[in-house]
Design a protein that fits this description.
Number of helices: 9
Organism: marine sediment metagenome
Strand order of the largest sheet: 3-2-5-4
Shape: elongated
Pfam families: tRNA-synt_1 (PF00133)
Catalytic activity: tRNA(Ile) + L-isoleucine + ATP = L-isoleucyl-tRNA(Ile) + AMP + diphosphate
InterPro entries: aa-tRNA-synth_Ia (IPR002300), Ile-tRNA-ligase (IPR002301), Ile-tRNA-ligase_type2 (IPR023586), Rossmann-like_a/b/a_fold (IPR014729)
Distance between the termini: 37 Å
Number of domains: 3
Number of strands: 10
Protein name: Aminoacyl-tRNA synthetase class Ia domain-containing protein
Helix content: 25-40%
Length: about 220
Amino acid sequence: HPDYIKHGRFGDWLENNVDWAFSRERYWGTPLNIWRCSSCDNYECVGSVDGLRSQSSVSGLTTPLDLHRPYVDEITFACPKCGGRMQRVPEVIDCWFDSGAMPVAQWHYPFENQDKFKQHFPADFICEAVDQTRGWFYSLHAIATLLFNRPCFKNVICLGHVVDAQGDKMSKSKDNVIDPWAVINNYGADALRWYMLVSTTGEDTHRFSTKMLEETIRKFFLTFV
């Protein structure tokens, strides 16, 4: 919900989608679990800790095992094709892949908690802002379709953004950002909640200014004073 996002923005994104190159040239992140042979250029994708431990002539394993950088980069093993040394490629995985793997990763599925996973998958409800049509909504959908050939959620609500009084995106460079804590301290949390509730429907963009908030307070809250 709303349908015009489902069949519009999100649907158009899926129809015109391209392959997801999810490796990133970063230091922090989930290390890409692919090793490359320095001799014959063979690539091996290691799918589990047990699979890594079972590699021929493996070295560099720490106790306890730490699969983050820089420790994982020290793990090498013999190439199954030529006997050379396999070294992990330097890239990490796109953080959106991490977030999209949440339904399985939170239960360490399929390595354990199979029953708990089945009880909670797919999720009854998820909610995020409209920009997540190309972010979390997509990564959830793509990974669940790949693994289970079905969505990982039953219901979703897509919310609009909060913008300034002119409808422009709030940005530090534009100096139009409104500190929510300052608003709460000056007007109270209930006034802010009520304004966000009645100003527009959830899926629409919320225009916000202190003048708009004051008008809401005058019309509603002061009626009961």
